[in-house]
Amino acid sequence: MLAINWKFNKCKLTNIFYRSRWRLALAYSALMFCMFLVIIFLSYRGLIWAVSSEQARELSGVVRDIAEAEAILMQRNTYPDDLGYRERMFFYAYNNAGELQHFSKAPPRLEDDVLQIIHEGRVPLAEEAVFERQMDSDRVIMMTASYVRIDGEIVGIVYLGKDVTALYKGLTKFYYFWGIVSLLALIVAMVTGYYIAGCVMAPMQAAYERQKQFTADASHELRTPLSVVMASADLLSHDASIQSPFLQQVVADIKDEVKKMSKLVGDLMVIARNDNHAERLNVQEFDLSTSLEQVIRNMQPLAEKKHIALLGNIAEGIVYTGDEHKIKQLILILVDNAIKYTQEYGSVTVAAKYGKGRKISFSVADNGMGISSEDCKRIFGRFYRVDKARSREMGGNGLGLAIAKDIVDAHHGYIYLESKLGEGTTFSVELPQLKK
Ligand code: ATP
Ligand code: MG
Questions:
Q1: Stretch (H or E) spanning 86
Q2: Which residue in 8, 133, 296, 379 has a CA-CA distance of 20 to 30 Å to 84?
Q3: What does the DSSP assignment read for 328-370?
């Protein structure tokens, strides 16, 4: 059988607002954080670009000056000690034979690395390159080179460098500083997000609470008049003075409708109580096998009416700790559905056993009409009925499975179903033992 399996997590309605509030707060702070990271990254890259392009411009201007000065010095063949190079700058001028003609030394910590870079030919001509990390002293230098020309003829080459460590370190510090600021911003965004989400949720939550309370009050208030109408209809149905078959039918119809309404009101009350957590579980140890047998016995007449074989495959002595009344109600809902939605001469099987780790599991399987995969997704929703007209005809309100799910949730368990249209449906329940 191609199985459609829906597993429902424990999901309390009351948690919806709390979880939505957190979800909104997290989404808002994640968005803010991402925006902050993008801004920091872009401003860091922008600053690096601005600073290094200025440095590069300065360097290429200076290297041209030095190349021109070197050309004059080479022509004169006299070299002064000092060319007056600028702050943190150094240069090395070579002739075409590769002999060092003139230089302004790099700081001793950098010199070996600088000479290595020059000898490896890594300094680009008329362009600037940044060298970092390979410097032992964790320094950053920027270098460029220019040919020395006399009358247009290349007579040598000048390598110019500048120690830009301070600038780069400053930028890195800026990066870290904004990293810390963005973490603080994340915290602020989370707190603000949580607060704003709370403000947004408050009216919705209040409306939801009011609606819950209204359902509870309305169903409670409807019970008394309904009992009165039922009692009156009962009286009328036993009144010998009503002879007209038409009136007798009217009274019978009233009784029928009032019965349906009473069931609806009763179901609404259960749902409203579950939503309001008005009812606490009456947890106790009981023999689940006996409860299941009992439900099967009680439902036997209903099954016989449709010539349905209601069978039990229940392991003996299954002990469960939970709310016996609610568990019986759960089994009843599932067996009632199985009988209701199975054609005449069909079969319904109730099975139960111990699962893993003293969990209990039971199932109600039928070979009835089955449920489509689309409907499976929504079947536990309130007032959801696959075939509304047919279900209403059978006296269904579409609340049975919603109540069943509430009961399973309250016991921290799972309910899932496997079904195939036209072949049948199996509802399975897994429940952990509760603590008394
Ligand atoms: P209520 O239980 O409130 O009297 P209901 O039986 O219509 O009314 P649910 O028990 O919640 O409501 O079931 C919802 C719908 O799921 C039903 O209307 C029916 O269409 C479908 N359904 C439930 N159980 C089965 C089943 N065993 N086989 C086929 N369809 C089912
Ligand atoms: Mg039902």
A1: none
A2: 133
A3: HHHHHHHHHHHHHTS-TT-EEEEEEEE-GGG-EEEEEEE-SS-
Q: Amino acid letter at 341?
A: Y
Q: Which residue spans of the chain are classified as CATH 3.30.450?
A: 25-173
Residue of 142, 29, 37 lying closest to 86 (CA atoms): 142
Q: How big is the chain, counted in residues?
A: 436
Q: List, in sequence order, every residue forming a beta bridge with 143; answer none if it has no partner.
A: 129, 161
Res 1: pLDDT: 39
| E-state strands within 249-325 | 283-287, 309-314, 319-323
**Which residue's CA is the closest to the ligand 1 atom numbered 10?**
400
Q: Is 397 in the pocket of ligand 1 (CB under 6 A)?
A: yes
Residue type at 392 in one-letter notation: R
C-alpha angle 359-363-365 in degrees, rounded to nearest 5: 165
Q: What is the CATH number of domain 25-173?
A: 3.30.450
In DSSP terms, 249 is beta-bridged to none
Letter string b/e over residues 408-419, b meaning 16 or more CB atoms within 10 A of that residue's CB: bbbbebbbbbbb
Distance 213 CA to ligand 2 centre (A): 24
CB proximity list for 348: less than 8 A, separation 6 or greater: 303, 308, 309, 310, 311, 335, 338, 339, 342, 364, 365, 366
Q: Given a cut of 70, is residue 63 above it in pLDDT? A: yes
Which residue has its alpha carbon closest to ligand 1 atom 2?
400
CATH annotation of 281-431: 3.30.565.10
Mean per-residue pLDDT, 161-171? 86
- 425: Cβ below 6 Å to ligand 1? yes
Residues around ion ligand 2, judged by CB within 5 A, are: 337, 400
Q: What is the percentage of the chain residues whose pLDDT exceeds 90? A: 43
Q: Is any atom of ligand 1 closer than 6 Å to the C-beta of 334?
A: no
Rounded average pLDDT over 80-92:
69
Is 366 touching ligand 1 by the criterion CB < 6 Å?
A: yes
Q: What pLDDT does 164 receive? A: 86
C-alpha 222 to ligand 2 mean position (Å): 22
Q: How far is the CA of 296 from the CAs of 221, 300, 302, 325, in angstroms?
A: 33, 6, 10, 15
List the alpha helices (DSSP H) in 120-244.
Answer: 165-237
pLDDT category of residue 163 using cuts at 50, 70 and 90: confident
Question: How remote is the CA of residue 10 from the centroid of ligand 2, in Å?
Answer: 21
